[in-house]
Amino acid sequence: MHTTPNYHYCLLGAIGWDHPSWVGAFYPEDLPPEWRLNFYGTAFECVYLPYATWHAAAPETLAEWRHDTLAKFRFLLEAPPAPSETDDAGLIAALGEKAVVIHPHEKPPLIWLEPDANLRQLARTLQALESNPPFYLVSMSGDLAQLEQARTLIEVLGY
Question: pLDDT 10s digit of each residue in the chain, 159 long?
Fold first, then answer.
């Protein structure tokens, strides 16, 4: 009998990828803004997009975003406020398999990396999760130093 190994798989990211404070600190000064998503996607595995952000994008733009990122990259989409009132299926489809609609209190688990996060407590939280990959760790503030600490924690924990 073959069984699936019991392991965690954590994808790290932030809310959005276009942070002005990242220019020079993360993005090279001369990197054109339209290349930022591609660059971001080489360092992070996911990005959380509030509903207003992805809902306002054209399907062609979303398809371009999908094309500009690696196969493992995921777009975490805040769920529509009232699914019966909007038709977002075409927008979600434009992102293809990279779209993950995040509904509050439903799987896949989304863990917010709060600005004042205690890494010891975060480690306990991560270790307590069920072993159903993947789960997502998303920075609320986009603090690069904190994201680097979270990356190190994930690696130390073997995720």
Answer: 333 444 458 999 999 999 999 999 999 999 999 999 999 999 999 999 999 999 999 999 999 999 999 999 999 999 988 765 567 899 999 999 999 999 887 776 899 999 999 999 999 988 888 766 688 999 999 999 999 999 999 999 988
Map tokens 């190994």 to a residue.
5
Residue type, 83: P
Nearest CA to 73 out of 11, 150, 147, 138 is that of 11
Residue 53, classed as helix, strand or coil, is helix
The span from the CA of 107 to the CA of 39, in Å, is 28
To the nearest 10°, the Cα dihedral for 144, 21, 19, 155? -10
What number of residues does the chain have?
Answer: 159
77: which strand partners? Answer: 49, 101
Q: In this structure, what are the phi and psi dihedrals at residue 91, rounded to the nearest 5 degrees?
A: -65, -45
Residue 103: C-alpha distances to residues 1, 13, 45, 66, 82 (Å): 35, 17, 19, 21, 11
28 cis-preceded (ω within 30 degrees of 0): no
Which pTM was predicted? 0.90
